[in-house]
Amino acid sequence: MFQHAPSSISLIVFSTILFHVSSSPTQNPDPITVQPFRVKSSPPATIPAFPEQSDFSGCPLDLPEVLFHGIKSACSGKKLHRGRCCPVLGAWLYSAYSSTALSRSISAAARNTSSSSAATTPEEDMPLLPDDSETCVDGLGKSLRRRGIELARPNETCDVVYCYCGIRLHPLSCSEAFRVNEEGKLVGDERVDRLETDCLSGSHNNGDRFSPLSGCNKCLNSLYKLNPKRSSGTRNPSKEDRNRTTKMHSKDCVLMGLTWLLAKNRAAYFPTVTSVLRAVMLNQDGEPRSCNLGGDGMPLAVDSSEFSNASSTLLQFPHHMVLFLLYSVITLVVLIRSW
SPARK domain location, by residue (predicted)? Predict the structure, then answer.
């Protein structure tokens, strides 16, 4: 009677362990940067000339509820983290402002085309378009406060959007890659088509394996190709002003490319746009060559909290496997001895 007791106990232990392991995760979940949501996208390769007006007449914004949840998660709390808050805040603001920005860019392009000097004056030498940042930020702040969301501030004199994160909202211009067609719609050339392909997030990229870091690099390189006349980085003092203006125009092309993507399909492009913005915002000169490792050793294309969560998930399943194998061996030994 007692001879079979160890085997029964062992079988119970074995079954319990097997059930516990089988209920554990069997595959790694996809890294989560932003939960996708449904939006009305524009027709392929075009952006409507006139956006639907919102509550803010001075700065029409598209403010879905998920925007407030995203901003609250990234930028609220006692302490601000630039690498976490600013890219997410920037992506949401550029997304909310995308229809307004691109529509006003159409108007500006039409004025430049009708101007007699437009044919002879390089675009980077044209006056800067008006900045909507103050009006837009005021409207966003009111919407946040109505929902009980208060953004943390680095200090009393520095706001989060403009001062801390350096986010500017204004009509964008990049005639090298974008133009207004005969129907009055903004369209992109083959470089924009390539940009749309290179910046797709993994879950929307035909099911292929997708590294956030490599995806960020591909998108960043495609953005730079929108404006082939980028600054050469010369230090000639006589060309300092021109180089500064050229650099600002190059940044406009990058932001216009990102804004175009967000206006076209916010759900599909939001994760990669956030990654690119993180690389740009944390780079000293604002023109990173790649989305390489930051000072904390983590890829700029992945938020530190997401990186930690993903790592713990990856370690969880092997840990159970080790326990399963260990107890299996012990159980087999006990069974053999009981026989």
Answer: 57-238
Burial 315-332 (b: 16+ CB within 10 A, else e): eeeeebeeebeebeeebe
Spatial neighbors of 228 by CB under 8 A, at least 6 apart, are 176
Strand partners of residue 178:
188
Answer yes or no: do 10 and 111 share one domain. no
The rounded distance, in Å, linking the Cα atoms of 134 and 58 is: 10
Q: How far is CA 83 from the centre of its chain?
A: 12
pTM recorded for the entire structure: 0.65
Whether 71 and 150 have beta carbons less than 8 Å apart is answered as no
Number of structural domains in the chain: 2
| Domain span including residue 91 | 32-301
Runs of H (alpha helix) within the chain: 5-22, 65-75, 82-114, 133-146, 190-198, 212-224, 240-264, 266-281, 304-338
> In the predicted model, is pLDDT for residue 119 greater than 80?
no
The reply to whether 200 and 327 lie within a common domain is no
Q: What is the pLDDT of residue 110?
A: 64
Are 295 and 308 members of one domain?
A: no
Token digits of residue 171:
């009509």
What band does 286 get if pLDDT is binned at 50, 70 and 90? low
Tell me: do 98 and 207 sit in the same domain. yes
Q: What are the tens digits of pLDDT across the range 37-46? A: 233 343 444 4
Instruction: Mark whether 308 and 174 lie in a shared domain.
Output: no
CB atoms within 10 A of CB 135: 16
Do residues 34 and 256 touch, judged by C-beta distance below 8 A? no
Burial 232-251 (b: 16+ CB within 10 A, else e): eeeeeeeeeeeeebbbebbb
Please check whether residues 68 and 101 belong to one and the same domain.
yes
- Model pLDDT for residues 48-90, shown as the tens digit of each residue: 443 333 444 577 889 999 999 999 999 987 788 999 999 999 9
26 and 45 within one domain: no
